[in-house]
Amino acid sequence: MYEGAVQDLIDELGALPGVGPKSAQRIAFHILSADSADVMRLANALRVVKEKVRFCENCGNIAEAPTCRICQDPRRDTTLICVVEEAKDVEVIERTGSYRGLYHVLGGAIDPIKGLGPEQLRIRQLLGRLTNVREVIIATDPNIEGEATATYLARMLETMQVPASRLALGLPVGGDLEYADEITLGRAFEGRRLLS
Amino acid sequence: MYEGAVQDLIDELGALPGVGPKSAQRIAFHILSADSADVMRLANALRVVKEKVRFCENCGNIAEAPTCRICQDPRRDTTLICVVEEAKDVEVIERTGSYRGLYHVLGGAIDPIKGLGPEQLRIRQLLGRLTNVREVIIATDPNIEGEATATYLARMLETMQVPASRLALGLPVGGDLEYADEITLGRAFEGRRLLS
């Protein structure tokens, strides 16, 4: 459609997740009129991320060294491992400020449709980290794939006699009972706690 | 939040139009796991656009030479000039295949709130192009700013005795009368044509 360089940019932008043809065009025109230094900073940030960022040898989190900030932090409780699907889940949990243990990033969840079985996930590496661990907290997503992965891990951990736990399912804080779906509400009933 | 390079990339992506913090994070994680060659192609496309693409000296359209493809094309009718707000509007009109004249990109519309007056637009350059022009088609957007700009241009062109026209307003083809807003419907009545 457009002349060479602009169309190339629109094509490349359109290949990013969540960027449709209209957004790609809009971003490309923004870049055309944007300050050159700003655009070069973006181009450079892309290059630097691919050159510098790798995955932690220990837990699979993103890192700029062989191991990540969390694995390097001496204040973390090394007897707790929280298992998540993706590196971004680590950040989500860190933001709560309520967990001081280590993490283990699986790199996805068991999903036969996508061809992801236990062998494609970093489960073997998790099993190699279980010495002196008092609890593994399974924090995979509360959906079919995440639950399947949690069940699989729970069985593995049981045979290895390592205590495993799963994040609670229930009503979201600040939510409205009226708008809760029936499955969540059912889980909230199952997980109800006696007061005092 | 994240380690240096990843957070830098999220910040740069988040500064793009239509990319919120969540999308920026999603794109950044996509880039982390994407093929290095693909990411380098995107970084390069950004650089090339800033280095190679400029604006046509004649009409203000995007160009990779001093003048754009359309101004260089000897088959175009040089006695017609279609005035648009932005370079992307040129492409929109080109796609219809129903116009074979030249363009003039104003670089926006008159908008006092944004501090855009006639002096900030490429109106002076338009007035310098009117020799041997038989019609100027004003194709600014059909909104307040576009209409104000069209009215301003129409007056200027009248004093210079250059015929000016404005794109028709009316019902969109394939639309449904029921869903037309009252202003569009009113314009469709005003612009009605006798059949045969």
UniProtKB/TrEMBL annotation, chains A, B:
<dbReference type="InterPro" id="IPR034137">
    <property type="entry name" value="TOPRIM_RecR"/>
</dbReference>
<dbReference type="GO" id="GO:0006310">
    <property type="term" value="P:DNA recombination"/>
</dbReference>
<dbReference type="Pfam" id="PF21176">
    <property type="entry name" value="RecR_HhH"/>
</dbReference>
<dbReference type="Pfam" id="PF21175">
    <property type="entry name" value="RecR_C"/>
</dbReference>
<keyword id="KW-0227">DNA damage</keyword>
<protein>
    <recommendedName>
        <fullName>Recombination protein RecR</fullName>
    </recommendedName>
</protein>
<keyword id="KW-0233">DNA recombination</keyword>
<dbReference type="Pfam" id="PF13662">
    <property type="entry name" value="Toprim_4"/>
</dbReference>
<dbReference type="InterPro" id="IPR000093">
    <property type="entry name" value="DNA_Rcmb_RecR"/>
</dbReference>
<dbReference type="InterPro" id="IPR023627">
    <property type="entry name" value="Rcmb_RecR"/>
</dbReference>
<feature type="zinc finger region" description="C4-type">
    <location>
        <begin position="56"/>
        <end position="71"/>
    </location>
</feature>
<keyword id="KW-0863">Zinc-finger</keyword>
<dbReference type="InterPro" id="IPR015967">
    <property type="entry name" value="Rcmb_RecR_Znf"/>
</dbReference>
<keyword id="KW-0862">Zinc</keyword>
<dbReference type="Pfam" id="PF02132">
    <property type="entry name" value="RecR_ZnF"/>
</dbReference>
<keyword id="KW-0479">Metal-binding</keyword>
<dbReference type="GO" id="GO:0008270">
    <property type="term" value="F:zinc ion binding"/>
</dbReference>
<comment type="function">
    <text>May play a role in DNA repair. It seems to be involved in an RecBC-independent recombinational process of DNA repair. It may act with RecF and RecO.</text>
</comment>
<keyword id="KW-0234">DNA repair</keyword>
<dbReference type="GO" id="GO:0006281">
    <property type="term" value="P:DNA repair"/>
</dbReference>
<feature type="domain" description="Toprim">
    <location>
        <begin position="79"/>
        <end position="172"/>
    </location>
</feature>
<dbReference type="GO" id="GO:0003677">
    <property type="term" value="F:DNA binding"/>
</dbReference>
<dbReference type="InterPro" id="IPR006171">
    <property type="entry name" value="TOPRIM_dom"/>
</dbReference>
<comment type="similarity">
    <text>Belongs to the RecR family.</text>
</comment>
